[in-house]
């Protein structure tokens, strides 16, 4: 799990401050910087969505540092969404299956999926002293979405975790 409060322009993350060392920094590996970059883009996509149910989801598929597809939760049914629903009543688009379908529909090859990363973000509304604002929520893919992700061979999923006092963060699933 990766939890981040402040990222400097150089890509360093401000760490916990001790009394002895008020400016401790942790160096972030390039792959984690890249994950943070695309995670933030996915978060912006989620922010732009309708929050009719008090939450917003977005998913993005990235291959070789390029966005190849985006998906969001939709109140629409589709045979593809129904095929990978977590149960027979789950036929609406989930962001993950929507992103995979959009990529597939646009001719993305199976070999590309297997070398891609999926980013998934959930935003939920929090009421703080009468003011509503959006915070990250857990967006670990459901069973149906994981079936779709595995079927298309996506090997890495970066998803948001519940926001708390540490700021925001994400976790990573590495598929075999």
Walk me through what this model shows.
- With 176 residues, the chain is an alpha+beta fold.
- 27% of the residues lie in helices and 35% in strands.
- The strands form three sheets. Strands 1, 4, 5, 8, 9, 10 and 11 form a seven-stranded mixed β-sheet that branches. A two-stranded antiparallel sheet has the order 2-3.
Output mean pLDDT: 82
Structural class assignment: alpha+beta
Backbone shape: globular
What profile does the largest beta sheet have? 7 strands, mixed
Rg result: 17 Å
Helical proportion, percent range: 25-40%
SSE string, helices as H and strands as E? EEEHEEEHEHHEEHEE
How many beta strands in the DSSP annotation? 11
Low-confidence regions? 1-24
Distance between the termini: 19 Å
Q: Approximately what portion of the residues adopt beta-strand conformation? A: 25-35%
Can you describe this structure in just a few lines?
The protein has 176 residues and is an alpha+beta fold. The chain has five helices and eleven strands, in the order E-E-E-H-E-E-E-H-E-H-H-E-E-H-E-E. It has helices spanning 30-47, 79-83, 95-105, 110-113, 143-152, and strands spanning 2-4, 13-14, 25-26, 55-63, 66-72, 74-77, 92-93, 116-128, 131-137, 156-160, 168-174.
């Amino acid at each position: 799990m990766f939890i981040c409060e402040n990222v400097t322009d150089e890509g360093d993350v401000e760490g916990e401050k001790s009394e002895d060392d008020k400016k401790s920094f942790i160096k972030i590996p390039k792959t984690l910087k890249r994950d943070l970059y695309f995670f933030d883009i996915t978060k912006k996509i989620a922010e732009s969505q309708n929050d009719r149910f008090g939450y917003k989801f977005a998913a993005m598929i990235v291959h070789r540092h390029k966005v190849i597809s985006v998906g969001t939760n939709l109140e629409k049914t589709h045979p593809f969404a129904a095929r990978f629903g977590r149960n027979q009543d789950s036929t609406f688009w989930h962001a993950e299956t929507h992103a995979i379908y959009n990529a597939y529909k646009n001719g993305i090859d199976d070999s590309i999926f297997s070398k891609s990363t999926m980013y998934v973000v959930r935003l939920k509304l929090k009421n703080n002293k009468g003011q509503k604002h959006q915070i990250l929520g857990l967006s670990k893919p459901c069973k149906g979405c994981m079936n779709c992700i595995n079927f298309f061979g996506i090997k890495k999923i970066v998803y948001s975790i519940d926001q708390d006092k540490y700021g925001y963060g994400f976790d990573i699933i590495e598929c075999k």
